[in-house]
Design brief:
Shape: elongated
Strand content: under 5%
Order of helices and strands: HHHHHHHHH
Largest sheet: none
CATH superfamily of the largest domain: Winged helix-like DNA-binding domain superfamily/Winged helix DNA-binding domain
CATH topology of the largest domain: Arc Repressor Mutant, subunit A
Distance between the termini: 51 Å
CATH architecture of the largest domain: Orthogonal Bundle
Number of domains: 2
Number of helices: 9
Low-confidence stretches: 105-109
Structural class: mainly alpha
Mean pLDDT: 78
Helix content: over 70%
């Protein structure tokens, strides 16, 4: 199947699913929860660092999605909308707990070379010093630990891209940011994670 045809098929499936949800079909809601329930719960748990709080956040988000489904116009997929709803509710909870950290929004030009558009600094790769110095199991433990310690704006993009494996378009829709801004956040998040992991490995 060609790419355009595949996109058309996905768009049609998404529209059919949205219409079924708006009509209040129980089987449609059950299908959505079966498809995405475990993913959004895992995402919320990693964002909040607490499974009980994550369950409450997801429940609140799903109730809100159910109540507002008629206003959904289909600019993105149901999957992206669910992640957005959970993300927004999780941030409310993080703010309530006073753990929200604003990392700012730097312009893209600060990160790219003017001549060729490539990164000014190399992105983080897992074949660097930390990976060479630590065994695989220990490295993974440090990575997961330090992801949880990152500011939420960094943590959420790494979770969505590296853990949940959402497509770029899905992440952009969920976070309501441009592809360029997403590239910046991922670059900064990987750099921050690299520094944190290397610092922790040196301490050990």
């Amino acid at each position: 199947m060609k790419v355009d045809e595949r996109h058309q098929t996905l768009a049609a499936d998404n529209e059919n699913q949205i219409n079924a949800l708006k009509e209040g079909r129980a089987e449609a809601w059950k299908e959505v929860l079966t498809q995405y329930g475990s993913g959004i719960l895992a995402y919320a748990a990693r964002m909040l660092g607490d499974k009980t709080s994550a369950e409450d956040v997801v429940q609140d988000a799903l109730v809100n999605v159910y109540r507002t489904i008629d206003s959904f116009e289909g600019q993105c997929s149901i999957k992206s909308w669910l992640y957005r709803a959970v993300r927004n509710r999780a941030i409310d909870e993080i703010r309530r707990q006073k753990r929200f950290v604003d990392v700012g929004h730097d312009p893209e030009n600060d990160y790219f070379k003017e001549d060729d558009g490539h990164w000014k600094d190399e992105c983080f790769e897992w074949d660097g010093h930390a990976a060479r110095e630590l065994d695989h199991k220990n490295l993974l433990r440090l990575v997961h630990k330090e992801i949880n310690n990152l500011p939420h704006a960094y943590r959420e993009v790494l979770l969505l891209k590296e853990i949940e494996e959402l497509e770029v378009s899905e992440i952009c829709a969920a976070l309501e940011i441009s592809a360029g801004n997403l590239r910046i956040r991922i670059h900064r998040a990987r750099s921050a994670l690299r520094a944190a992991v290397q610092f922790s490995s040196n301490k050990e």
